DNA sequence: TAATCATATTAGTGAATACTGATATGAAAT
DNA sequence: ATTTCATATCAGTATTCACTAATATGATTA
């Protein structure tokens, strides 16, 4: 396993590891949206959202398509959607396991 | 989508988003290992590795099992292994797409 | 019981990252 | 051509995070 590959992989995954970015991804999960739509839906700061979009784009997680003065962002591909779903699945399973484990303490 | 859930989800994913932690996960992917085995294989600092193990454990990604003075760490379950594999799969696909896209510039 | 070994925790530091407000770019409308 | 609108970028600050060295805990061995 190359040292460098793990750096790239870590950076890629870090794209998903922030609340605001997860909100953005949820927001555009099913349909492309413009920056202003996203800003409004998340009640966020334009600059902040824009920077997170740049991050997600840089990680290869989303793509942007310009149409006039608007830029529409969407998930890069189906695999990304699968990832998002697997996150939920795995997290739920883990939380269930932990909950069961906790209950043994009583 | 609850605000709080996204925080938990982000924290969970952040567990995977560091090179050292990815190295640890690779290291114990196929068999449980003790802390000292991991430290040696990664040529790492004991304190540092220990803190990363605590992080991974706190995220619910790995579990530890004590046997005498040793603690054996392993992936929590099969789903986690699946996640690791999906990361590679998706990242490779993204990189391929980006490479193809770049080639259009010439 | 004392010494040793494996692991965890703490404190301190530096680097990376998220956020905000202000400004810049570039496209569309007037 | 000027103004307006959508988005990006920049500069500064605060927070989070990874790392190291030192110390603590807790189990085993002598």
From TrEMBL, chains A, B:
Keywords: DNA-binding, Transcription, Transcription regulation. Pfam families: HTH_5 (PF01022). SUPFAM superfamilies: Winged helix' DNA-binding domain (SSF46785). Residues 1-95 form the HTH arsR-type domain. InterPro entries: ArsR-like_HTH (IPR011991), HTH_ArsR_DNA-bd_dom (IPR001845), HTH_MetalResp_TranReg (IPR051081), WH-like_DNA-bd_sf (IPR036388), WH_DNA-bd_sf (IPR036390). It comes from the Bacteria. GO terms for molecular function: DNA binding; DNA-binding transcription factor activity. Gene3D superfamilies: Winged helix-like DNA-binding domain superfamily/Winged helix DNA-binding domain. NCBIfam families: HTH_metalloreg. This is ArsR family transcriptional regulator. It comes from Anoxybacteroides tepidamans.
